[in-house]
Amino acid sequence: MSGPDVMFPEEQRQITNVCVRLHRDSNAKAVLLIGRDGQAIAEAGEVSEIDVTSLSSLTAGNVAATGGISKILREKDFTSQFHEGEKTHVHITLVAGRGILVVLFDERSSLGLVRLRVRKATEEMARLFEQVARKAATQTGPSILNEITDADIDKLFND
Q1: How many Cβ atoms are within 10 Å of 148's Cβ, its own excluded?
Q2: Structural domain contains residue 2
Q3: In total, how many domains does the chain have?
Q4: CATH number of the CATH domain containing 130
């Protein structure tokens, strides 16, 4: 699955809470959860100075490229990546094949602490993604197409 196709308000709130807790517990600068399609799902921390849209898109592209490398090497997937910068470090983790968790941190934290906290957060997020999938499967509401009549179609094309 490429990402959550739907997100319900309650699960969105819970996922955001997981990001907030991860931000605090890992002493990170910022935490982002994005879909495999590059769309931001949730965020926490110091994100006002970051172009979240661009970072999300580029990270999704990075994960896709790394997925290509894993296929060439006959690996299932590389589930995490680490990029060490001069001031900011980036830890990227796949979440249940549906999302990408990005943790930005600096010298106030450590890679070991981030990895430890990310492990717990990804387990919780995976459960929430599964909850969303189950909920979406049981909620098959009426299709908008059922409301369109032949007369509506005739009016549309006769104008």
Answers
A1: 11
A2: no
A3: 1
A4: 3.30.450.30
Q: Work out the angle between the directed axes of helices 111-138 and 9-26 (0-180°, nearest 10).
A: 170
**Helices then strands, each counted (H, E), the chain:** 4, 5
Alpha helices in 95-142 (DSSP H): 111-138
Name the amino acid, one letter, at 7.
M
Tokens representing residue 50 in the block: 């970051």
> Is 145 a member of any domain?
yes
Strand order of the sheet with strand 40-45?
40-45, 30-35, 99-105, 89-95, 80-84
Residues 97-146 pLDDT 10s:
889 999 999 999 999 999 999 999 999 999 998 888 888 778 755 555 56
pLDDT digits (tens, 9 = 90+) for 33-47: 999 899 999 999 999
Query: Residue 3 domain-assigned?
Result: no
